[in-house]
């Protein structure tokens, strides 16, 4: 029996009555529809109506788009759905996770670099305000992963770092702030990413910590956010062999499943040991970590049978719906278990007051609410976060500060700049523009027009033309790559820093903080964590000495190597 008066629902008698009556009004197909939270790809109303009036989904998520368009799409969905929808967004870095013009406050690692819990709270407030303005009520955030493995290509700047205590402190502050503003969080990715060097988007990854190690780290982080009242947990396609073996003695290696298909992790660990009473959702099920673990026809109903309450995204919604119904027919999934899952889905909706807002017609605010997107206060907060986060990792050559008097002629190299899966953009033009405003002469290395003969032009040919070299790297996390490392330009690594003993050289990363693994002996290294104009503006102030470097290292930027510290 689910206690709907207990944490995290705290429903009154009226709320419980709505949950029970709504559940009772649904036939089996209607209940199964509530289990699904697909990703939206269109604002075409005919297609949207198939979701709300056909399968009658329980929730949905869209990638960011123009705020007005996103808001109108959400309004149509809520207007045409009999039961209010959970509408989600990846609000990991601010309002830009729901609206393209929303505030890009900063990646979680940037927030961690401030070592200021108030910044995590402000991130949560911005996420709730701006996400709410376009009609979102569910944040797929915060990320509770601990970035233990610098080789992991997807956790990286999306985490609050590698210190479990800081991760717990920041995650709790975000959770409390966003919930105070009427939005649900989804703490993720249980049982915890960042240990394996591999990405669960591409395979079933492994959390290889022992039971004792997990309890002292991930376990405490999750316990703190559960205690803070997190409404939902997102479960990753991540196996935890130590706990599976502890909870299921004799389990075979082949029987060790990703958490999304592992009842011992969902029920014994998350529900019973950690005491989580809220909604459990899978991570995106088109990810290979899920699809490679079990035949999809079986995996779809098994995920709910194992303890997940909601099924995120689809290869084919119609096909997955049919698989879920067939799983009930064949006994993989019982209707009793479906009722439990739908009860929790409805209870979250009631806890957010969505049933009342449905009656009032206020599930999605009016167009005027969009004025909060990138409003003056939020921009000011983002600027504060940028100022407090930029981190001087090392300056063993004492190059800083720089000025047109000391280093007038700069040779600038850009790395990356493609937009990543979770936001970001090419900030190099803004960086170069700001340098020129300061009076520097900037030459941008053009890797597409490398003069082969110039590669062998000697030291003097370089030092006669330039006073210093600056690398600005924006290598973002993507869900299709196995590493986030530097690839130098042909021929022979034309843009690599072979000249660090010949002229002052610095490396700045506005994304991956671990590039010292590939440029260990560059003597001046700066981490800035997020590719935003706010960060670039703060960075320039620090490079020229008008502002001090205030950020702390939220991870080990030296990657455990001695030569990276030289």
TrEMBL record:
InterPro entries membership: GH (IPR017853), Glyco_hydro_3_C_sf (IPR036881), Glyco_hydro_3_N (IPR001764), Glyco_hydro_3_N_sf (IPR036962), NagZ_Beta-hexosaminidase (IPR050226)
Reactions accelerated catalytically: Hydrolysis of terminal non-reducing N-acetyl-D-hexosamine residues in N-acetyl-beta-D-hexosaminides
Entry EC no(s): 3.2.1.52
Name of the protein: beta-N-acetylhexosaminidase
Taxonomic lineage: Bacteria, Bacillati, Bacillota, Bacilli, Bacillales
Keyword Hydrolase in annotation: yes
Pfam families assigned: Glyco_hydro_3 (PF00933)
Domain Glycoside hydrolase family 3 N-terminal: 31-347
Superkingdom as given in the UniProt entry: Bacteria
GO MF annotation terms: beta-N-acetylhexosaminidase activity
Enzyme class, first EC level, given as a word: hydrolase
Key words, A-Z: Glycosidase, Hydrolase
Coiled coil: none
Family (UniProt): Belongs to the glycosyl hydrolase 3 family.
GO biological process assignments: carbohydrate metabolic process; peptidoglycan turnover
Protein source organism: Paenibacillus odorifer
């Amino acid at each position: 029996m689910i206690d709907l008066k207990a944490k995290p629902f705290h429903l009154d008698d009226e709320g419980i009555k709505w949950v029970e009556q709504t559940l009772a009004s649904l036939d089996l197909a209607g209940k199964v529809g509530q289990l699904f939270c697909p990703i939206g790809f269109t604002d075409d109303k005919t297609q949207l109506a198939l979701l709300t009036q056909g399968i009658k989904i329980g929730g949905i998520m869209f990638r960011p788009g123009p705020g007005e368009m996103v808001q109108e799409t959400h309004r149509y969905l809520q207007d045409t759905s009999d039961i209010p929808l959970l509408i989600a967004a990846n609000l990991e870095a601010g309002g830009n996770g729901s609206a393209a013009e929303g505030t890009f406050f900063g990646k979680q690692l940037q927030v961690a670099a401030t070592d200021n819990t108030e910044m995590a709270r402000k991130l949560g407030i911005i996420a709730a305000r701006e996400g709410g303005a376009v009609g979102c009520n569910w944040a797929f955030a915060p990320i509770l992963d601990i970035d233990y493995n610098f080789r992991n290509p997807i956790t990286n700047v999306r985490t609050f770092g590698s210190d479990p205590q800081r991760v717990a402190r920041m995650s709790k502050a975000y959770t409390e702030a966003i919930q105070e503003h009427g939005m649900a969080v989804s703490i993720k990715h249980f049982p915890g990413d960042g240990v394996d060097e591999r990405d669960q988007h591409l395979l079933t990854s492994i959390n290889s910590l022992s039971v004792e190690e997990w309890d002292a780290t991930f376990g405490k982080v999750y316990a703190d956010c559960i205690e803070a009242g997190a409404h939902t947990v997102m479960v990753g396609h991540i196996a935890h062999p130590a706990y599976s073996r502890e909870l299921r003695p004799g389990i075979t290696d082949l029987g060790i499943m990703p958490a999304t298909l592992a009842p011992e992790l969902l029920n014994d660990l998350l529900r019973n040991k950690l005491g989580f009473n809220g909604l459990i959702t899978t991570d995106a099920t088109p990810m290979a970590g899920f699809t490679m673990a079990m035949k999809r026809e079986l995996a779809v109903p098994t995920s709910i049978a194992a303890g997940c309450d909601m099924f995120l995204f689809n290869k084919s919604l119609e096909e997955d719906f049919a698989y879920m119904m067939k799983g009930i027919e064949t006994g993989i999934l019982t209707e009793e278990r479906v009722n439990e899952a739908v009860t929790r889905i409805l209870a979250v909706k009631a806890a957010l007051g969505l049933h009342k807002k449905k009656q009032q017609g206020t599930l999605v605010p009016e167009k005027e609410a969009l004025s909060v997107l990138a409003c003056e206060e939020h921009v000011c907060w983002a600027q504060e976060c940028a100022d407090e986060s930029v981190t001087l990792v090392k300056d063993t050559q004492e190059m800083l500060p720089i000025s047109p008097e000391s280093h007038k002629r700069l040779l600038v190299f850009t790395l990356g700049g493609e937009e990543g899966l979770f936001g970001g953009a090419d900030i190099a033009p803004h960086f170069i523009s700001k340098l020129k405003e300061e009076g520097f002469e900037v030459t941008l290395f053009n890797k597409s027009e490398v003069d082969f003969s110039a590669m062998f032009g000697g030291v003097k040919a370089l030092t006669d033309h330039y006073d210093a070299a600056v690398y600005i790297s924006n290598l973002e996390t993507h869900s299709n790559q196995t590493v986030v490392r530097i690839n130098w330009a042909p021929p022979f690594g034309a843009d690599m820093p072979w000249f660090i003993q010949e002229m002052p050289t610095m490396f700045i990363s506005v994304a991956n903080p671990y590039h010292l693994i590939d440029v260990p002996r560059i003597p001046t290294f700066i981490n800035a964590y997020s590719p935003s104009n706010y960060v670039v503006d703060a960075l320039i102030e620090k490079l020229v000495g008008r502002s001090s470097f205030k950020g702390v290292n939220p991870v080990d930027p030296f990657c455990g190597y001695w030569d990276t510290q030289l």
